[in-house]
Amino acid sequence: MPSVMHPSARVADLLALLLTLKNEFDGASDLYELERKLEVDLDDFMPIVYAANELGFVTIGGGDIIITDLGIEFLSSTLKKRKEIIKNALHRIEPFKTAMEMKEFTLKSLNERLVQKGINDFNSAEGLHGLQILLTEWGVYSGFLKFDKKFEVTA
User: Fold this and answer.
1) How many domains does the chain have?
2) CATH number of the domain enclosing 22
3) pTM for the whole thing?
4) How many Cβ atoms sit within 10 Å of the Cβ of residue 72?
């Protein structure tokens, strides 16, 4: 099953996770300790951990999380460079991988293609809303996508 980014994963949460991991834990921590330090619920914490892992900013395994060189580069970069790093990493994660294949799409057409691939995460009214949030929060923010009546991949 392909990696699918969860709609609750936010760019600001990614930044908080990486900053805390680097500054409070010297780049490596037990997931439970990091969750406790960030004072978030596990259901809110894990989607951003998985997103950070899929983007290549951390590695996770055996209950531990370690910041990668890319994660450190992300933290030390300018806002423009951070957006570029995210943009370059999104092509590996659904729904962005399929978006890249389609080039231009609406929410509905992207969801239909995802369902054909066996990805049903967005196949409801709530799911479509989550898909729109994901595309905007990560795709438009990073410059991977632009939006004018429909989405278009710029990468």
Assistant:
1) 2
2) 1.10.10.10
3) 0.91
4) 15
